[in-house]
Amino acid sequence: MYDVIVVGGGHAGSEAALVAAGMGCETLLITMNINFIAWMSCNPAIGGLAKGHLVKEIDALGGEMAKVIDRTGIQFRMLNRSRGPAVWSPRAQADRLMYSADVKKRIENKDNLTIKEGMVVEILTDKKRAVGVKTSTGLIYEGKAVIISNGTFLNGLIHIGLKSYPGGRAGEVPSTGLTENLNKLGIKSDRLKTGTPPRIDGKTVDWEVLAVQPGDKVIIPFSYQTEKIEREQVSCYLTYTSKETHKILLGGFDRSPLYTGVIKSTGPRYCPSIETKIVRFKDKERHQIFLEPEGLGTSEYYVNGFSTSLPEDIQINGLRSIRGLEKAEIKRFGYAIEYDYFPTYQVKYNLELRTIENLFLAGQINGTSGYEEAAALGIMAGINAVLKIRNEKPFILGRQEAYIGVLIDDLITKGTDEPYRMFTSRAEYRLLLRQDNADERLMEYGYRFGLISGEVYDNMKRKREEKERIIISLYDKKVKPLEINPVLESVNSSKVESTVNIAQILKRPEIKFSDIQKFIEQEKGSDTLEKISPQVEMEIKYKGYIDRQLSQVKQTKTLEGKKIPGDIDYLKIKSISSEAKEKLQKVRPLSIGQASRIPGVNPTDISVLLIHLKNMPTEK
Amino acid sequence: MRTEDTIAAISTPIGKGGIGIIRISGKDTFAIAEKVLRGSKGISDAESHRLYNGYFVNPESGEKLDEVMYVKMNAKNSYTREDMIEINTHGGVYLIKRLLEVVLSQGARLAEAGEFTFRAFINGRIDLTQAEAVADLIESENEKSLKTAIRQVAGELKNSIKEIKDEIIDIYSNSEAEIDFVEEDIEREDKDSVIKRLKKTSNNLEKMIESYQAGRYYKSGIKVGIFGRVNVGKSSLFNALIGKDRVIVSEQPGTTRDVIDGEIEHNGLVLKFFDTAGIREGKGIIENEGIKRTKLIMENSDIAVLVIDSDDIKKDEDLEVYNELKEKFSENRNVLIAYNKIDLIEDIAEIEIVISNKEIRNIFISAKEKIGIDKIIDAIIDNVDADKSLENNNILIVNVRHHELLKRANEGIERLIKGYTEKIPNEFLAIDFSETIENLGKITGDVSSDDLLNRIFSKFCIGK
Lengths: 620, 464
Prior knowledge:
The structure holds 2 protein chains of 2 kinds. By secondary structure, chain A is an alpha+beta fold. Helix content of chain A is about 35%, strand content about 15%. Chain A contains 20 helices and 22 strands. In chain A, strands 1, 2, 6, 7, 8, 9 and 20 form a 7-stranded mixed β-sheet that branches. A 6-stranded antiparallel β-sheet of chain A has the order 14-15-16-17-13-18, with no helix packed on it. In chain A, helix 3 (about 65-70) packs across helix 4 (about 95-110), helix 11 (about 440-450) runs antiparallel to helix 12 (about 455-475) and helix 12 (about 455-475) packs across helix 16 (about 530-540). The relative contact order of chain A is 0.12. The model of chain A has no long low-confidence stretch (mean pLDDT about 95). Chain B has helices at about 30-35, 95-105, 115-120, 130-140, 145-155, 155-180, 190-220, 235-240, 285-300, 315-330, 375-385, 400-420, 425-445, 450-460; strands at about 5-10, 20-25, 35-40, 50-55, 65-75, 85-90, 110, 220-225, 260-265, 270-275, 305-310, 335-340, 360-365. In chain B, the strands form 2 sheets. In chain B, strands 3-4-5-6-2-1-7 form a 7-stranded mixed β-sheet. In chain B, strands 9-10-8-11-12-13 form a 6-stranded mixed β-sheet, sandwiched between helices. At the A-B interface, helix 7, helix 17 and helix 20 of A face helix 6, helix 13 and helix 14 of B.
């Protein structure tokens, strides 16, 4: 008898299993092929805008993704470096094999964690409560809670041209039977589509003519626990499609599963196939193509930007019309895949199904896309499964607290009809949810759950105190005109007449932290200041904006505090528009705040709902 | 306000007109009508939206109270989206009230002001702007304001706001795309172009905001306060303006202790005049009270007429009053100066001009001889027209809530312009973008957070 059983060993399943075991639960991870633990099905990269934020948050909670990419990354870049630290985002190319092997090792070395190969086809239930799983060969494992994280494997159907075949990922069989089993238990499923580009042989590329995209000289690690990364980095390369490419691709549209109606489900708008790009943006004469290394021990390259399900001959001819790829050989062809997911209104905020107790959904089967989104859902499902069997309060993060909170609330409240990806613009409190303060926001939770060591937690607290000390000192530290004017003059900033504090000077748009750094006292040999200076600069320079965001949070809290009784029957409130009724009945929001975020529920509906709640008898 | 019961009201002005209409709305409407109406067809058999002839009876006694015409409206197509009946009766005050009492005795509740519209709003028949416009329509005091209200009902305000909101979302989406899709090959909008677009949008908003004053004039009339030290002829001027001898005019200083008002209509505009007690230290309790009211009028007037006795100019005292007025009125031109009693002066050119300010109009009158009264009215109308003309096709803002929200939206845009000018990174400006969009959305009642990503994906080819 296990405490927690995790079905599927991808990015969600791995994090879920590791935290469940880390919290002291006997945990079983069942996956279809142990060689593909935490395998990157698509892009060999971790992070990027908003996704990098998620990785930092997973790290602060005690997850593994950040540590693994720090060890197996082969090119690191901090995106948006030209802007403020709120929207910086780390991104790294990974060595695909090393990444998977690293996670596998962590799982194998983890206490309380057992790993087994097998295909789960049935969730065993007793009175609407999950009690175990059954594999395709009839083996039964009993468990107090079950987490399902099958990624794109459920009834996966791969398309290349007009040919299609069942598969969970290129070269791997799909998982069949589980969706049907869950459908029988009353869980609704739907289909989504995603795609991946071809992989080519680097030996056949004319590198000389391509633009090089090197990594950062100084690497800022993902994990708060990684001291330093000193590794020789490999480069990515940039080229473009041409009119000729587009012509060739269009020539294959009669055999395109997307444009002949073979694929019916929706793919992601932010990661369209090359065929979609040339159709939707007809006037764009060229599209970016990035060649990304698959690893240090292979000559394979990932052709980012060229996701396609066109037939093989079109793929190769199209690619060869691109500068630098005239003689390219494709090692693996691009394809599209359709798979089952379970619309997320069916789960609660702890990711447990509303209708089946102790059964949790995590990862791409919730309608997301991306390793980072999956891992975030995985760690939350893992923690919540443990809390559930211990009869403890669920762990729910608010939208003002974490991107993870935004992710889960969006999925439940807004739903998604395309694979959901995180963007910073989805987070209304973006200035508070920064990649540089994920530890300040979330590490305390990780520490409380026993997933973050006391030492790491104390380090964070020290860093935070140091930062606060420096900020206060900048407001306290007075400088005379004689001291500061030469600095101001050197950057063409107007001189001061009387003594001022340093913070006032730093608030000027033209003044950078480095200009005033010499006025700050710090312990000898400490590198804290260097690490936190962007944070300090931002928190002083843009204090006004941050304070406004904080007051917005306060305002929303009153709406979140207006609770809606669980048994309300929206269909009986006749004054609410029928679209809103349907949505409210489906989502069953917990508060007025949540209700107001449901698309299709407009302010009028909310006013009516408030009137209705006021008129409702308080007692039955 | 409850919405589950059945409401009834007389929906025509009492005492005027040949017929009166009783309106009933709510779930028991037809049941009540069945009891009080006897027609060629029973209520349940009657067709929706057809006029029937019949009798209004007292269900207790069976007595026929009136011969009426009635229309049944099924919820699906009625104004309130509830079952409705309208009964056309013979409009005597006593009779129609009696009929309404009977309806109320059968289970309906007397509707509160605007409650039919409120129900239309919460039942989704009309949106927020339309609901507010209907309320304004009921309140509107003259013909021109009726036109404004009707235009709003047609959704013109909504369309204009939507255009402005759309432009802001568009600029915002460019800004956000730059942040979230830094690796994509997308065109960046340069700062100057953004500032230019924001300024243009702000101008449009400002026009709407400015129209509020004029809009308010057309809706509730122009309030004109008549001020001056004692015994300069304020009451005589007041009487001359409204054309009636309503205020006691006497030689005794301090006669007008109460604030007295009267109104006239001029080219579709209502001018409301307020006569005030003279400003000076009052001697008795009654006079103090009058002065208090005078100050209140000063606060609430749109335009002030300062009356000066040409024959007895006391420069210091007149200036004192003027300075007090100047403080209250932000626009100099909203203070007019009337030099009264010119009939006692031989040569107008000899009158000492107390205040010389280009923006301030000096008008020479004799209230007693009715000289120059038209000039005062013309000056008032000029000021209103200078505010914003109704004749151009601009939207007139008449609703105080809209005015507030537009002002806030415009402040947001001004902060954005400042932010772009100071090169504040756009992740910070997002706050001002979203607040502006939210404030505009509150006017039209639709706030959709997904607009932004939709816009980005439709504009830019995203997909590294």
